[in-house]
Predict the 3D structure of the following.
Amino acid sequence: MKVYIKKLSWLWMCIGIFGMGSCKDDNAAPAIPDQDSFAKGADISWITEMEAAGVSFYNQAGIATDGLKLLRSLGMNAVRLRVWVDPANGWCNKEDVLVKAYRAHHLGMRIMIDFHYSDHWADPGQQNKPAAWGSLSLDELKAAVAEHTKEVLQLLKDNGITAEWVQVGNETGNGMLWEDGKASESMANYAALNNAGYDAVKAVFPAAKVIVHVHNGYDNSLFRWLFDGLKSNGGKWDVIGMSLYPDKDNWQERTQQCVQNMQDMIARYDSEVMICEVGMSWDEEDAAKAFLTELIDRSRQFPAGQVLGVFYWEPLSYNGWNGYTLGAMDDSGRPTKAWEAFK
Amino acid sequence: MKKLYDYVVVGFILLLLAACEKEGGTPTITGVEPATLTASKTEVPLEATTPKAVALQLMWNISELQSTETIALSQMKTTVQFSTNASFASVGRSVDVVSASLSYTHQQLNSMVLALGFVPLEQQPIYARVVCRLAPNVEPLYSNVLELAVTAFEPVEDGDYLFMANGDFSAFPWKLCARLEDGIYDGFVQVDQWYNFYLANEASADASTIYGSYPVDGNQYVLYAGDDRWNCWTNNGGYLYLRADVNAMAWSETVVRSLSVTGDFNGWSASANPMVYDQEQQVWTATITTAAPEQWGMKILINESWSWFFGGSETEGVCNLYTADADGFAYEEVGTYRLILDLRDPKAFRYSVEPL
């Protein structure tokens, strides 16, 4: 009899395991987001504009799905949202940011806000002042940075939303708000403008971590130049942000260089690190998955958790939306294998 | 004892097979609560000068369903409804959504409110709510109702037309017209089978709005104005009736197999007097012999249909396109004449009567 009872318990166990898996359904109600303290996120700033243009997002089964719920069901727990001051068509202004933040918040996702301090893209090639700030003096610019930062964050706060991380400037490897804040011209000016943003963030969200974000995460000399310069000018930051866009042929080398850069940043400045932007061509999904898996694994290996997370930039874009090809959806709007790295 | 074990095993296997039958389970679902709807603004002055800029964003939170059993989320339907009265006695527009926000550009919202009867330049209220329905047999849940004060702009004059552009925008052979300025454009075209085209609001490659088809296979009839649009194409070719609805962002094509003249003169025959298409002049003609002025006017039936025809209008020389009962157009001549139907400008379909 004992033997049978044993056999029966074994059978029960099998039934339990099999039973738990057997009813899995792609459309199943998603679980609460991954509670991992490591942030696995995406910049989804285009989503409202894409939706208004009639673009849909599909799960692997081909069913039209809320883009944010799709993100969450694929293992992500955070979103990143860019802010422009007065963009021509309104997308990514403070009201549009609120809509996206509100949606993410109600899905239990964590939020990073990315201030460009421009009316349009701010990146290594351009850091144009907002049109309305064109004739301001440096002191007035500092005040404008502070006011804009507080205004946007307060709008979120008033709606019950907390920003966990805030980027002061986007890819500011040569400063921001050119020419006044161009780092190669005046590191002191850049540090002063940066600190105006830093203090404004803390005034609204004291617990938020402020990120200074620089392109080419593999380029240690660029990072040393910029952060040495900021530090010697009293510049403040909590987290060093990085972008990394390798291709299928150089991702191993670039990832290795980026990890070494992270190690150096953590040791040199006692700073935390965030990978704020990554991407690879959507049609190189195997390479993208391998790259992201390696990057996330290596990022997680820092003993004190100094690397806070990895964000994919606009993975929901597809079919050449705005000419962008580094998303992570195939041309039918379904997720590629790249997402498997975030599971 | 061995036998008992076998029975138990077989029993469990049967149980397992039955366990995933969807109909079998009775899930208890909780967390079904009405959504809370908010808007980016409640006063919305629409501007013709910024048609593509975001004008209004609605967002809502829907509590997430908790279920004792796995359920398909696709069961849950969310719809945003708009009405011109606060009680929603009639719903002016319903938009099914999967996302938890809805954004309108100035142009999109203007089209919608004009279709709901708004008078341009007058601030008028429109009401919005979100409806969630768990299943067809479950009572829907309604959110709070938002009142939005919207001021529409006058539709741009040339916006009455959509111009059909060929694949490389080197020619604009045909046009469609929204005669009621309601965003529903239609007209007649003659093109080859598999003809590639776009619909543009100006006869220019630099038109501010250019519709193609949505760039995913299977969306041939979905209109889409994004830069990554595909061209539209027709499966049929020949003489076609095209209809493009920029509210629903969809277009359709119907093959015109015949146009036939009917009246007292031929005993209201649907087929006795077909018209002939003149390729060179791009008009339709028929030779008609009457013995008396047409008492009820004449009709020109499309595809011999009594519910799709050209009939009377208040403007001389113009015949309207009808899909419901209507009078014929005036035809006073007696004797043998050539009847010419010109459908090239869909703003007004014209007919004329000439001696042979």
About this structure: DSSP finds nine helices and ten strands in chain A.
